[in-house]
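sorry for the late reply, my laptop died twice this morning and i had to redo everyting from scratch. anyway the thing you sent over, i finally got around to it. pasting the sequence first so we're on the same page, its 300 residues, then the predicted structure underneath. double check i copied it right bc i was rushing
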Amino acid sequence: MEDLDLSDYKVTSEVHVFSEGESVDDDEHIVISTFKFSLPKNHSLSLHQNVNEEVAADGDGDLVVQRKNYTPDYSLSIKHHVNTSLDLVGLQVWRGAFLLADFLLHHATKEDTDFKICKDDIVVELGAGTGLTSIVAGMVAGHVVSTDISKGNILSLIDTNIKQNSKWITGQVEAMELDFCNSNYSEKLVGLLQNSKLLLAADVVYHDDLTDAFLSTLKKLMGMGRPKTALIALEKRFVFTLSDLDVVAPCYNYFHENLLQEFNSYDIVQLDTSQITQYFCYERVKELVLFKIQEKGPSP
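ok and here's the structure:
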């Protein structure tokens, strides 16, 4: 494949078109956006918030009682860039992060499911970017490791967003370096990876070389320690190519083909996203897909 300098390509996430961001330190390229969401009614955070909001007073001191079917809007405050070079897209917010966040909240309170996250589980996000999904994971899991490369101040950005949204986090969320092109992990990270139950990744596929590195890393991590489940969310991005003389999704097609090849000993399921409740306010386009990967169970 022809070598490309990813720093030459500038991109902007569609998410920023719909978000309301305030510039930071007079830099129009770095903003803090508010992303609204709701919570499952029987989620522990929702119950706690509803107790606090159930009875309030108006300006005259009269009691205002919320209706039983009242569903309050909550929000995350996320610092991010509005456009970046292709090699630093993690500094932006992408729709795959919201889809994964929806999935985590959807299953947090479902008792009749084969997928459950518990308060003593360790969750690791790969290519976490702004840390949005990791923060939501911190609402349902006991320990979340939000990983990304140490480039472009991405790790410090994750730290900032964790602190800005700490009121929503019931467990522990921390940022750590993990580079798909460097398997020299710290001793602490190795221990956390070995004991992790769930691996998350959202919109980390946008270049074939990076896809190769990501899948190689994922396969290695899936074989470390206890059995794991991996959830990968991404958006099919269609372009017209002269080689195909058609509108295709080359990055997605390359990813999917190699995923099936590299993980042929695993169960790979493309989940029906229409069955996942949408808690975050964003445009859930039909091009968003979600894969679940786990070890094959014993044959009957």
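The chain has a mean pLDDT of 85.
thats about all i looked at so far, will dig more tmrw
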